[in-house]
Each structure stands twice: as structure tokens, then as C-alpha cells.
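Example S7 (C-alpha cells).
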């Protein structure tokens, strides 16, 4: 793997491991052995340890004394709790865009992402669909101008990304449902309709939650 100098090495390692966790290549409960990662990526053990601490903050890894780092478990309580919280954070971002957009140019990034999402859905490109779904939230950050909101969403996003990927892996056809919700969200933002923004984003998170719970099976 080739790393880019523009990002810290630990952050790049964390992103690499996060991608493997999201795609299910590293399973819930599986131990992440520092030495193996060090050898596989040809990086220092210190950088791997720092990367694991980043993943712990992002709720993808738990680090236990004398037991090392393990991929965090997925269970119904964690899924519901995460979806509920992320829904409220997304709603804050949606409200901010609705309040502060002024011209069509302000909405252009969202319209471009809408087209990319449609193309990914047609191609059944799950990873691209997941990535651009979260890029929608990132496009909203300048409207909110709230560094704490941005930091919180970014730290929780990988865990939500994991849920979202699992949901789409179970039912690829559901991308059409997400697209319909996104279309409704854009209409609500244009109309500055906060009640509709809340409904659309709550439905979005509830859809993800129910699909993940179904994938997990009986509690």
C-alpha cells in the first residue's frame, strides 16, 4: 500500500484498517495484532499503536489491558444508539444548509453528489455510494460553521459507515430507497422546511438501523 505524505502516517493506517473493518474483512471481536500490521504495511509499531487509538476514538476498535486491540462488536443496542445520535447530528447539518444557502451555486455540491449517488446505485457500487453519502454531510459543514459538530460527526462517521455498508450489502436494491430520501431531503432544504428535513433524515437513519438489525439476526 502506498501512503500519501499529506496525511499523518497514523491517520492513513487508521483509515486503511477502518476500510477493512467496514467491509467486514476484519470481523467483530477479531484481534488486530500490532506486529502483523507493522510487517504487512512496513510501518513502525508506534504508528500502528497511534492508529489503533484513533480507531478506538472512532468506535471501531476496543483496546483492552493485556489483551490488545479488537474490532468492536456490533449489537442491537449499539446500532440503535448510534443511529439515533447520528440522526440528530445530521438534522443539525440539514437545518444549517436550509438556513444559510442563498444561491443555486450554494446547492451545486449537493446536486453533483446526487448525480454521483445515482450513478453508483446503477452500477451497484456500494463503496462509492457509501462514501458519497457521507460526502453529503461533509458538504454541509461550511454552512454549519461549527467545529464541534464537525469533529463529532467525523469521529462517529466510520462506525455509521460500517452500519451503512452492512445494510447495503444485505440489500443492494435499497439504494433506490436512499436515493428517494435524499431527493426528498434536497427538496426540503430548498424549501427551508425544517419539519420535512427532520422527517427525511429520521427515515434515512431508521432505514439503516432496521437493515443492520435484520442483518445481525435475533438478539
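Recovered sequence:
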Amino acid at each position: 500500500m502506498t501512503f500519501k505524505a499529506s496525511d499523518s502516517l497514523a491517520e492513513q493506517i487508521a483509515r486503511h484498517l477502518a476500510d477493512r473493518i467496514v467491509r467486514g474483512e476484519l470481523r467483530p471481536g477479531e484481534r488486530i495484532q500490532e506486529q502483523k500490521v507493522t510487517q504487512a504495511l512496513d510501518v513502525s509499531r508506534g504508528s500502528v499503536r497511534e492508529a489503533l487509538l484513533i480507531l478506538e476514538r472512532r468506535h471501531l476498535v476496543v483496546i483492552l489491558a493485556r489483551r490488545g486491540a479488537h474490532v468492536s462488536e456490533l449489537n442491537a443496542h449499539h446500532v440503535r444508539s448510534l443511529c439515533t445520535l447520528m440522526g440528530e447530528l445530521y438534522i443539525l447539518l440539514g437545518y444549517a444548509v436550509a438556513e444559510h444557502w442563498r444561491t443555486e451555486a450554494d446547492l451545486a455540491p449537493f446536486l453533483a453528489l446526487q448525480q454521483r449517488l445515482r450513478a453508483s446505485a446503477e452500477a451497484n457500487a456500494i463503496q462509492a455510494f457509501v462514501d458519497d453519502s457521507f460526502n453529503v454531510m461533509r458538504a454541509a459543514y461550511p454552512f454549519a460553521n461549527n467545529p464541534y459538530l464537525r469533529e463529532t460527526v467525523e469521529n462517529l462517521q466510520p462506525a455509521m459507515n460500517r452500519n451503512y455498508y452492512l445494510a447495503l450489502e444485505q440489500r443492494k436494491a435499497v439504494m433506490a430507497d436512499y436515493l428517494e430520501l435524499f431527493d426528498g431531503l434536497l427538496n426540503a432544504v430548498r424549501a427551508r422546511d425544517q419539519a420535512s428535513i427532520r422527517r427525511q433524515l429520521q427515515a434515512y437513519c431508521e432505514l439503516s438501523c432496521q437493515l443492520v438489525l435484520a442483518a445481525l439476526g435475533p438478539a
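Notes on this example. The chain has two domains: 9-71, 76-216.
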